[in-house]
Amino acid sequence: MQFTAAQIAQLIDGKIEGNPDVVVHSFGKIEEAVEGQLSFLANPKYEDYLYNTKASIIIVNESQPLEKPVTSTLIRVPNAYSAFATLLSKYQAIVTSNLSGIQEPSYIADSAKLGENIFVGAFAYIGKNAQIGNNVKIFPQVFIGDNVTIGDDCILYPGVKILNDCKLGKNVTIHSGSVVGSDGFGFAPQPDGSFKKVPQIGNVIIEDNVEIGANATIDRATMGSTYIHAGAKLDNLIQVAHNVEVGRNTVIAAQAGVSGSTKIGNNVMIGGQAGIVGHIQIADGTKINAQSGVSKSVKTPNTSLTGSPAYDYASALRSQAIFRNLPEMEKRLKELENQVRQLLTEKELRSALPGE
Asked: Quick one: which of 273, 239, 268, 267 has its CA closest to 253?
C-alpha cells in the first residue's frame, strides 16, 4: 500500500514543504527510517535526527524550526504526535476493512444475529442470541457467549473471551487474551473456616470508544453491572474487579488492579502497578503515580497521589527530600546533644566551685 505526501497531507490537514509526489509504503522511527518510509517528530530530544534521517516524509509541528537543510519532505501540522496517531488509525482501518466473511471452522448459533460486513475468524464461537453489529472484526479463537451484544465497528483480537450477557458499545477494541465477564471474586466465610462461593449473576457493560489491552480481566458484577465508560483506555494485564465503575476517558497503565465496587471518576490517570482497594471513590481528574496503593477515597478532584499508602504528591516529594537528609540530620542532632551535655557539665562544675 503506497501513499504520496499530498494524499497524507490531505488526510491530516497538513501543509507540505518539499516534494508532494514523494511516495511512502511503510512507517519507521525517525532514528531508523529508510527511504520510502514515513516518520514523525514530536519529542525535541530527537530533533537531531530530522537532519540526517533517510525517511522520505516526516510529520512535524507547525512551530518546528529548521537549523539545517532537510532532505525529507515535511508535513507541518499543529500537533505532530496527534496527527501521526490519526494517520495510523486510518491506516489500520484500511487494513482491517479488507477482512470480511466467515472462516471455517467456526460456530455461530442459529439464534445469533450478525450485522453487515463482518469478519469471523476460524475457530471463533458465537453463542445463542448474541447480537453482532456492522463492520465488526472477530479474529480467530474469539469466544462470544450467549446474549452478548457487540456494537458497530468493534475489533476483538485472537483469543478474546466475552462471556454471557455482557454488552459492548461501538468502536470498542479488545486485544488478545483479554477476558470480559469472568466471575467476580466473591466468597462468603463459613463457621468452619471454609468459604462458600457467591454466584456472580451480573454482567459487564463497556461503552463506546473503549480500548482494552492484552490479557486484561474485567469481572462481571455480583449483581448489576461492572461499567467501563466511554473513551476509557486500559493497558495490558489489568484487573478490574466486580461492580467497579471506570469513568469516561480514564486511562489505566499495565499491571494495575482495582478491587470490587470502587468507583473511579472521569479523566483519571492511574500508573502501572498501582493498587486500589474496594468500596472507595476516586474523584474526577485524579492522578495516581505508579506502584501507589490507594486505601481510602479521594474526594477532591484533580488530586495527585503517590506512595503506599498513597497521599498528596507534593507532600510526598517533601517527605522524600527529608528522608534523604535523615543521615545528615541525625549527625547534626548528635552534635547538638553533645554540645548540650558539655554545657550542662560546665554549668554543674561552676555551681560546685566556692563563691559561685
From this structure: 273
Helix (H) or strand (E) run with residue 334 in it: helix 326-352
Find cell 498501582 and name the residue.
274
Determine whether 242 is an active site residue: yes
Q: How far apart are CA 350 and CA 348, in angstroms?
A: 6
Cα torsion angle, 275, 279, 282, 284, sign: positive
Distance of CA 290 to the CA centre of its chain: 12
* Catalytic hit among 25, 175, 229, 242: 242
Q: In what order do the strands lie in the sheet with 203-206?
A: 113-114, 131-132, 149-150, 167-168, 203-206, 225-228, 245-246, 263-264, 281-282
The total of other beta-carbon atoms located within 10 Å of residue 118's CB is 20
Phi and psi based region of residue 237 (left: phi greater than 0; alpha: psi -120 to 50; beta: remaining): left
Query: Residue 356 above 60 pLDDT?
Result: no
Mean pLDDT value across residues 302-330: 83
pLDDT in tens, 92-134: 887 777 788 999 999 999 999 999 999 999 999 999 999 999 9
CA–CA dist 13, 22 (Å, integer): 17
Cα 337 → chain centroid: 52
146-162: average pLDDT: 98
Which set of grid coordinates corresponds to residue 168? Answer: 459492548
